Amino acid sequence: MTQYSAPIADLKFLFDDVFNFYEHYQKYPEYQEATQDLVEMIMEECNKFCSSELSPLYQSGDKEGCHFNDGEVTTPKGFKESYQTYVEAGWQGLAHPVEYGGQGLPPSIGLVRTEMMATANWAWAMYPGLSLGAMNTLIEHASEAQKQCYLPKLTSGEWAGTMCLTEAQCGSDLGQIRTKAVPNNDGSYDITGSKIFISAGEHDLTDNIIHIVLAKLPDAPKGTRGISVFIVPKVLVNDDSSLGQKNAVTCGSIEDKMGIKASSTAVLNFDNAKGFLIGEANHGLEYMFTFMNTARIGTAMQGVSSSELAFQISLPYAKERISMRSLSGIKKPELEADPIIVHPDVRKMLMMQKVISEGGRAMIYYAGKIVDNLNLAKNEKEKAKYDDQLGFLTPILKAFLTELGLESANLGMQVFGGHGYIKEWGLEQIVRDARISTLYEGTTGIQALDLLGRKILMQRGHSLQNFAREILGYCKDHSMISDNPHGRRMNKFIWPLSKAVLNWQQYSLRLALKARKNRDIVGTASVDYLMFSGYITMAYMWTMMAQKANEKIAEKPDNIEFYRAKVRAAEFYFDRVFPRIKSLSTTMMSDPKSIMRLDDDSFSFL
Amino acid sequence: MTQYSAPIADLKFLFDDVFNFYEHYQKYPEYQEATQDLVEMIMEECNKFCSSELSPLYQSGDKEGCHFNDGEVTTPKGFKESYQTYVEAGWQGLAHPVEYGGQGLPPSIGLVRTEMMATANWAWAMYPGLSLGAMNTLIEHASEAQKQCYLPKLTSGEWAGTMCLTEAQCGSDLGQIRTKAVPNNDGSYDITGSKIFISAGEHDLTDNIIHIVLAKLPDAPKGTRGISVFIVPKVLVNDDSSLGQKNAVTCGSIEDKMGIKASSTAVLNFDNAKGFLIGEANHGLEYMFTFMNTARIGTAMQGVSSSELAFQISLPYAKERISMRSLSGIKKPELEADPIIVHPDVRKMLMMQKVISEGGRAMIYYAGKIVDNLNLAKNEKEKAKYDDQLGFLTPILKAFLTELGLESANLGMQVFGGHGYIKEWGLEQIVRDARISTLYEGTTGIQALDLLGRKILMQRGHSLQNFAREILGYCKDHSMISDNPHGRRMNKFIWPLSKAVLNWQQYSLRLALKARKNRDIVGTASVDYLMFSGYITMAYMWTMMAQKANEKIAEKPDNIEFYRAKVRAAEFYFDRVFPRIKSLSTTMMSDPKSIMRLDDDSFSFL
């Protein structure tokens, strides 16, 4: 019932028309191989794998869930086989360095694979996804010997990896972790402690799992400045890279969750397990930040994928299910009632899902281009530039797209009426699976503090100014004044967008001034500010897409209806979604006191 | 983990201070018994039953679910015993006629019991809840002989009842039903057809189940004008009221659903089952409308109850869980971190849950007073008046409160971070259970069409004008000009509320004018219009509550903090929630074309 098919036409539009990815790749000698032919072949092949191997396991994986038995976890039927197919086809190393066995393609192409796997079967995709997190941490911060030891088998997918951060007493506040790392004479460490919520922490897909573990040295400074990062393999690796002794890591249990049931969420107990320090001691949090940007974009993808999958199921249903007659007169006299897609509110829900899926996808690949640039930055200055751009967009993408993804999944369910609540259709699973996305990898509240507190206030609005300048520049270049032949058609997008960006700058400044007097405003405004920022960023995407679509329409191509639909969708976005910034701009600027004044004891009088 | 305790202080505030229920009861000879002492005793007793019997079965009922075996349904462990306790205590007949064994108390007191059961254990509460629906249908439309036959045992709770409307091919569009009723010579009918989504359609709580079934006579007019209503008992009833032969009704299966797993949702097959016509043939839809108002207020209650239960779990967690330090400086130096309730965004989520729960509760009891009046209306004119009031508020209550209830449940989960996703805490269950509330008893879209299409346009805004006049009158009477001693403090509520009500009237008129030219606007505007209406209705409640709280504060009572918290909550509502009407007023007035213009084939290009 949840058969997935990749939105290849939409991906091609983004790669070829909107973001000019092929020109972008040709600027880098390292990316010369990434030609349009190759990328489109990858899209087709990956779609085949995801639609035929992963999609059929989506509902069965949820129904069966993972099995825990005496420390061992068995994944649902079919997971191991499809993972083997994935490894054999070399998908895991698609965008990883050639020297460790990867194919060395740009990260943006890796995102295509991630999107397709994510939409076809999010729970399945988490296993290779967490490995990517571990691999990126090793690539960025591990020693060459460590890389040689672990990366080839992680790149091939023969081994998997995890990120072990959370403990029972702390999630967001990693300064509170208690896992200890005691140095041995041989340079290794004895790791002792318990980690919870470890996605892919234990499973039967691979012979080894390389855990990346946050722990504290005995003499570590208090709080976040005392965190170090260790490699703790499930099975120790001999010098010849063969598997050695089992390490002292055991899986204590797996969680019984609302959704993503086919993804194991493990409690891992480290009992003097042998670990190997990555980089320098006490620099763990800093290392985690580089990892987090990519992990958070991966989670942002979950927002897009929830929306896309829900839309792929609700749209055909809305065309088939008949109920009542159209308000403006009978549309299908030959049927007992009209298909529900004729009803304005149903159309509205479908349009909403469409603009969230397509607008969100554009946001992801827009960021993907920055990841490509960052990956091959020529010097520290360039690196800092792209790092700033990405760091600014990351919390917006993660929180905004997961919140909207959840909204879209719920709308998909709503299109079904009561039938959406029944397991059979798969919609309720999408909602349950999507629900985790605003919680893990930093809740929406944490992302919002990162955006307003760190990326705006601590940076004095520097990244925002750059982004605002880019958008305003785009608006100017594509307005009627600048002889844009489509300028008249673009007015309805360019003016509201420009105005909103100017407000964004002004409100940000006002919040910064207010925050000097009252720090609480950073927290009372932050989530509304983030959502406000998200709607503007998405409006920029829809403006760019509408411009490109108008350009293509002028060429009268065979698939002209595709481009017309893009313009219509942009119109819908600006008419029906973008006005949400009005309420947000009021609430985010409100005085903190209506939130802060109530005594803790006065919230309830039970 | 989900221990419920009834919000008695809040109920007393509404009954005693805000809505003057005791004066209201004394106006009716039939309600003389409903004194403050009795009502408060009922609140205490019902709380005991709900917190000690129903609340402990909330999570276990979800985990176990209902069992289906060869046509029979077994409810989860403990359900049957607690239902027996409920019947023995006489709770079912609390607000039903004395002549059939009830206690004859006003419907508004029945709502107190409904609220407590609903919040403690919604799935459990659905069994007696559906019976109430069947009982109300019988009371309104059945013959005296039918009432004598069925009502006493339904009122005692010895038997249960259902409402059998939906069929596989139709839910909202009841004109499409295919269940047939063929008359027999003895005045009974043979009912044949299949009904789906029948809540409490089969279970082990009672010896008999009285199904109220929609079906069509052989010569019935097409569509909704050809619907008739029948009583179809699971077990036929002999003339002496004893149980006779089993009727030809079988439960084919029960649904596997996202939530409310402890509530059985049955497929019922009628195979020449014996049925008895209620009222006149072909008047079924009309009869259903009287039933629907009460059923929809019951579902609106689910919104309040989801919000309240989530709040009762997330609040103590926010006080206990420690993470990071307050933005405005350390609050608990003795702890390793501050409790998360100090963080502005967490407080905001808690405040949101608080104002939804308390504001929603006020909306329910405000409507409850109208139900009381309708119940004892002296003549047709009075009846029409109260019916109009209730009919206008019902879709707002049902759709707005269930949408906000779901938002609040999700916020409760969000307060927990990743822990909220784990089954143990119960939050994810509340979200799953709440998710059905915007779907059944008419989706949000259906309610919105009822509001804008029937209650505004067809009635030419008559009910809205009356309601607007009441609110504006209240605002005038409580403004500074009218010598309200609290007028200065009330300004911040009264002005935005008055302004919004004036806009409400104006926008409604403009929509009516636009709808003459383009019917589609009724559907493109309807959901936003309904939500807009809901926020204004809730703002009226918060204004009345703030006024009463200010009056009480002036008296300096012992529980002064309770009243101060009410004023703070009202401030929060007006600052942070009410501004949502800004965006809604823009989107609802938008031209329908951005929704209607896209070709059905252009929604997707897969």
Number of DSSP strand runs of chain A: 11
Residue windows where pLDDT falls under 50 for at least 5 positions of chain A: none
Instruction: Spell out the CATH superfamily of the domain at 8-156 in chain A.
Output: Acyl-CoA dehydrogenase/oxidase, N-terminal domain
Helices and strands of chain A: which structural class? alpha+beta
Largest sheet of chain A: 7 strands, mixed
Query: Which radius of gyration of chain A do the C-alpha atoms yield?
Result: 25 Å
* CATH architecture name of the domain at 8-156 in chain A: Orthogonal Bundle
Kindly report the CATH topology of the domain at 8-156 in chain A. Answer: Butyryl-Coa Dehydrogenase, subunit A, domain 1
Characterize the structure shown.
Two copies of one chain form a homodimer. With 606 residues, chain A is an alpha+beta fold. Helix content of chain A is 57%, strand content 11%. In chain A, strands 3, 4, 5, 6, 7, 10 and 11 form a seven-stranded mixed beta sheet that branches. Chain A has a two-stranded antiparallel ribbon with strand order 1-2. In chain A, a hairpin with a 2-residue loop joins strand 1 and strand 2. The longest helix of chain A is centred in the middle third of the chain and has 37 residues. Chains A and B meet through helix 1, helix 9, helix 10, helix 11 and helix 12 of A and helix 1, helix 9, helix 10, helix 11 and helix 12 of B.
